[in-house]
Amino acid sequence: MFPKPLPALEPNTFAFEQLPLVKPTGFREYDARWLFPKEINLMGVQALGLGIGTLVHELGVRPDIVTGHDFRSYSSAIKLALIAGMQAAGLRVKDIGLALSPMAYFGQFALDCPCVAMVTASHNDNGWTGVKMGANRPMTFGPDEMGRLKEIVLGGTYQYRDGGSYEFVEGFAETYLKDLKTRAKPITRKLKVVAACGNGTAGAFAPRLLEALGVEVVPLDVEPDYTFPRYNPNPEDMEMLHAIAAKVKETGADVGLGFDGDGDRCGVVDNEGEEIFADKIGVMLARDLGKLHPGATFVVDVKSTGLYNTDPELQAVAVKTDYWKTGHSYIKRRVNELGALAGFEKSGHFFFNEPIGRGYDDGLLTAISVIEMLDRNPDKSMADLYRALPKTWGSPTMSPHCDDEVKYGVVETVTKRFRAMKEAGEALAGQKIVDLVTVNGVRITAEDGTWGLVRASSNKPELVVVIESPVSEARLRAMFAAVDGVLRENAEVGAYNQTI
Questions:
Q1: Residues 101, 122, 457, 458: which is the catalytic one?
Q2: What are the record keywords, sorted (predicted)?
Q3: Maximal CA-CA distance, the chain
Q4: Which of 250, 303, 394, 402 is close enough to 407 for a disulfide, judged by CB 3.0 to 4.6 Å?
Q5: Each residue of 30-78: pLDDT tens digit?
Q6: Fold identical between 190-388 and 393-496?
Q7: pLDDT digits (tens, 9 = 90+) for 114-158
């Protein structure tokens, strides 16, 4: 029997080569992330593969699974170790090679595989690895499945089965890009588009798709380099957005599009170099799609702008908005449950249901939707469409360090503190708290509509803080100072990755 994983092992020892290492905190709410090889070794990845196969059979799902890997120096080795475990557990594996996460999700449909296990650390820094998994297309695992998988793997209770097999699917990228092209409407407007890929996986695919749409492509950091020398491929990080903005201004592009490390997210910069946070892009797309689909429902995460509820144009076409938990699996599932037209996350995960997409998040399909929006508004620039939104002042997503072992407890403590303040009528940043939303962390709203969010990151040892004010930048900063003051009551909260 394959050995039971250990939570810690010293590298450069015989034990490290003879036993599986799997740090328990790598099992997140809806996917898995570890530092490799500090927190998981290749035998640990095999154990994970055995666990995935065991869980698939336990769920009664047909054991056909598609897998691929992102562009990192170690991802191919991780994938092969995962495949070894999945085969041993009786899964029939179809390997699509180097891929974007949405390419693997598409493979569930195109290759008739109910299951997926995509090896990727997404936007995490170099050194991280992980797996995004699902057994019910287009959904990915949520807390229940991840909890059970953790039990199986850490307990070493995986089950061997006959019938496992392996097939490499040659040229699958062409099938994926062709499908996206057929979903796009002909572009009649002449457009110049910056395609920024952060030297990550999207560089192999995004420029090709955009060229096929007939737009002029300005490549930015599309060359592969898994050291990510310029910036981390994360369109939520200001460093990447600044680089896109500079290239847009330099080339006179109509729009800048930035893709994360595994291509399931898309960030946008307008033609004037203004960096538009993804929740505002979602409002713009909801306005555009709401005219084509009046009465449509959109799902948005709790980090997103309040404009979804207050924008007059969305109200005019009777659009309905559902605020839900942050996380690609949560929003994906909610979009499916409600039959929503689309779901939008502030992180840049956008989920389009039929007739636009298949319900999963795809940064390239998001790029198509942005380009089509511009094409449907030939007399307006991206900046014009952005200026047409009611003005609010919003922060980027800010993440203070907080260890995985304590971050959820800190959020619980902070939530209790804000609840006590509300009940006592205590002022926060000079105003009363009028609303607390605790569906995912805590979102605190003041009398003038200014709000702040604190939640635990689902994939890194961090908290997540977002602030927005419909009143002024001064109110934005006051709310941030007040929320941060409460956070600083907890010694476990460290420095931010970026702030306003």
A1: 122
A2: Isomerase, Magnesium, Metal-binding, Phosphoprotein
A3: 67
A4: 402
A5: 999 999 999 999 999 999 999 999 999 999 999 999 999 999 999 999 9
A6: no
A7: 999 999 999 888 899 999 999 999 999 999 999 999 999 999 999
CA torsion 310-314-318-324 (nearest 10°) is: -60
Specify the length of the chain in residues: 500
Dihedral over Cα of 158, 160, 163, 166: its sign: positive
CATH class for the region spanning 14-174: alpha beta
pLDDT at 193 over 90: yes
DSSP 269: E
Nearest to 49 by CA among 90, 84, 19, 12: 84
Rg (CA), the chain: 22
Q: How far is Cα 67 from Cα 88, in angstroms, rounded to an integer?
A: 15
To which CATH superfamily is domain 190-388 assigned?
Answer: Alpha-D-Glucose-1,6-Bisphosphate, subunit A, domain 3 (3.40.120.10)
* 449 backbone dihedrals φ, ψ, rounded to 5°: 90, -5
**pLDDT at position 192 over 90:** yes
Does the active-site annotation cover 73?
no
Q: How are strands ordered across the β-sheet holding 297-301?
A: 320-324, 297-301, 342-344, 350-352
Taking the C-alpha atoms of residue 475 and residue 293, their distance in angstroms, rounded to an integer, is: 35
Domain 393-496 in CATH: superfamily? Alpha-D-phosphohexomutase, C-terminal domain (3.30.310.50)
The values of phi and psi at residue 432, to 5°, are: -70, 150
Q: With the CA atoms of 130, 196, 329 and 95 taken in that order, what torsion angle do they form, in degrees rounded to the nearest 10? A: -50
Report residue 170 as tokens.
Answer: 């040659």
